[in-house]
Amino acid sequence: MKLGIKLKNLRIAKGYTQEELADRCDLSRSFISQLENDQVSPSIDTLERILRVLGTDLKNFFADDVRKKIVFRVDERVPMYMEEQGIIGYILMDNIEDKSIDPKLIELEPGAQTEEESPHEGDEFGFVISGKLELILDKKVYKVKEGDCFYYCADRKHKIRNPYKKSVKFLWINIE
């Protein structure tokens, strides 16, 4: 494994120059350069310090990228059994460790609504694929139609309803 290129890619993804990373880790810029060019090997303590600044840890850094799932097939979706409430839902990505988003595909039949959620941490995003819906945040109603999207901090009561005569299909993503 080329340690240097992985570190360089992480540094660039964070938007740090070699100098900025060196300063944050209390190391020299030349050491970071040598490390990225695989000319030196860091101690475990130094590597942990660098990875902490780059927002990861040893376990995730050395995880085998080949085993990380990239494509999630339609036949792998996990049904969310709420059909008796007029809601058809699917979890789009399952069995993922440390995911920070939870996307779902939801269809609300006419007159159906989700249960009101209490305030919680995170944000929520939605994109209406077809139809229209109402997003209720606390007691304020937002009308959202096909092609529109919504985004809000989940720190207040919220639910989604379909008071219309046609079904609505939307992508709903919980972000931690």
Rg is 22 Å
Mean pLDDT: 90
The tally of strands reads 9
The run of helices and strands is HHHHHEEEEEEEEE
Task: Tell me the fraction of residues in β-strands, as a range.
Answer: 25-35%
CATH superfamily of the largest domain: Jelly Rolls
**Number of discrete helical segments:** 5
Structural class: alpha+beta
How do the strands line up in the largest sheet? 1-2-3-9-4-7
Low-confidence stretches: none
First-last Cα distance: 31 Å
How many structural domains are formed by the residues?
2
CATH domain topology of the largest domain: Jelly Rolls
Query: What percent of residues adopt helix (DSSP H or I)?
Result: 10-25%
Largest sheet: 6 strands, antiparallel
Instruction: Choose one word for the global shape.
Output: elongated
InterPro entries: Cro/C1-type_HTH, Cupin_2, Lambda_DNA-bd_dom_sf, RmlC-like_jellyroll, RmlC_Cupin_sf, TransReg_Diox_bact_type
Protein name: Cupin domain-containing protein
Domain HTH cro/C1-type: 7-61
Keywords: DNA-binding
